[in-house]
Amino acid sequence: MTTMNEPIAKPDIQYDQISGRAIRSLPLYALVPVAFALVFSAAGYPIDWKAFGLGALGWLVALFLRGPVSAIAMKLPQDRARNVVVGSSGVLEEGVRLGLIALASTGASWAVSAGQGWAAVEVLYVMINVVLIASLVKRTDEKAMQAKQFLEAQGTVQAHPLWGVLERIWASAFHVGCTLIVWRYGWSVVLLMPLHSALNLIAVRLAAKRSVPAASAFVAVAGVGTLAVGLLTI
After folding, report:
1. Mean pLDDT over residues 60-69, rounded?
2. Fewer CB under 10 Å: which end of the chain, C or N?
3. What Cα–Cα distance (Å) separates residue 19 from each residue in 10, 111, 125, 132, 167?
4. Predicted structure pTM score
5. Is 127 helix (H, G, I), strand (E, B) or coil?
6. 132-172: per-residue pLDDT in tens?
7. Measuring CA to CA, which residue among 221, 220, 229 is closest to residue 184?
8. Of the candidates 116, 113, 146, 148, which has an alpha carbon nearest to the alpha carbon of residue 134?
9. Which superkingdom is the protein from (predicted)?
10. Which are the contacts of 44, defined by CB distance < 8 A and separation ≥ 6?
11. Distance from C-alpha of 213 to C-alpha of 29, rounded to nearest angstrom
12. Hey, is 97 helix, strand or coil?
């Protein structure tokens, strides 16, 4: 017999399958930054490891800056809080990207490597989240059940992990493209801030309200398009 305060256990067969598939997808996530490095190296832009590291650091700084925003958003209703946090990401990331380029950029090759570092650490962050979520979905305590409900509301919990890998490819293309654009035209950050935030918000909404493939297609167009524009600036 259960009470209103006790979590109601659900069959974990589905969650076990989801967890297993997610963990098995981790090597594919890791291949994304490797593939970008190989392609750009073949194109004549080998990795500048200092720029790569600074790009990764820039993303971490932007993530750290989202902390206060998240703390404030916690006081809002769940949907509004998510919109505030997701919407702020573009402003913070592009602002930090501009500062990083202004302080350290030495040329197009530097920008390509910095963009790859920015994208690579985000891939690592996603991989860590995959492991944490895979561990979470096996639990049946109250907090875990609440987290499962939140994940289900996002519409991505049952999606095949390959969609997540594809999303990392498109997002990586977007980051490299943005870095090149801001490197060439610093003023473009004024346009990229709302564009980046809108991309994140629309992608989250499409995944929740329509489908993960629809969200992936949208991010693919935005990511590849931004990379193409960025490459034209070289």
Report:
1. 92
2. N
3. 15, 36, 17, 10, 19
4. 0.87
5. helix
6. 877 776 666 666 666 666 666 555 666 788 999 999 999 99
7. 229
8. 148
9. Bacteria
10. none
11. 18
12. helix
